[in-house]
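Let's practice the habit of predicting before peeking. Look at the sequence and jot down your guess about where helices and strands might fall. Then scroll down.
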Amino acid sequence: MKISITHKEEMKFEAKTAKSSFIIDCPTISPIEYFLSGIITCSATDLIMMPKNQGKTVSNLVVDGEVVRAEPHPAKFTSLHLTYTFDSDADDTMAQRWVMASIETYCSTINTIRDTTKITYSVTHNGKLICENKEVISGGGSNIDMGEIEACPS
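Done guessing? Here is the structure:
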C-alpha cells in the first residue's frame, strides 16, 4: 500500500492512493480524527460484509468511537471504546460474534493499535443492549478462524 500526500494550500492536503484521492482539510478534521474514522470504518465494513456472506442483513448500523489520549505529545491512544448499534435478521449471539470477529480478527486498523490501546465495546442489537463495556484482551491477535470474508482491501 502506498499513499502520497501533497500540500495544496494553507492547511489542506491531497491524499492519493492507487485507487482514488481525497482532500484532508486540517484543522477542520484533524489527522487523528481521520485515523479514528478509518478504524471505525474498517470495523463497520466487517459488520456489513460478514452477515452478507452468511445470508444475513444488517441495517441502521452506527458505530461510535471514543478515545482517550495520553499527555503530553505524542498523545497516543490509551483507550478506545466502540459502540455498535444495528438491526439484523440474526440472533443476539450471532450479532455479538460479528462484532467480536471484527475487533479481534478481521479489522487490521484495530489490530494495529491493539497491543498499545485498551479496547472496549458495547453492542445494541435490534434495540436491545446485548453487551456493555466488554474488554478486548490486548496483544497478539486471535487464533479464531472465521473463514474468508469480503471487505475493503487492506
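How did you do? Residues 31-53 form the longest helix (23 residues).
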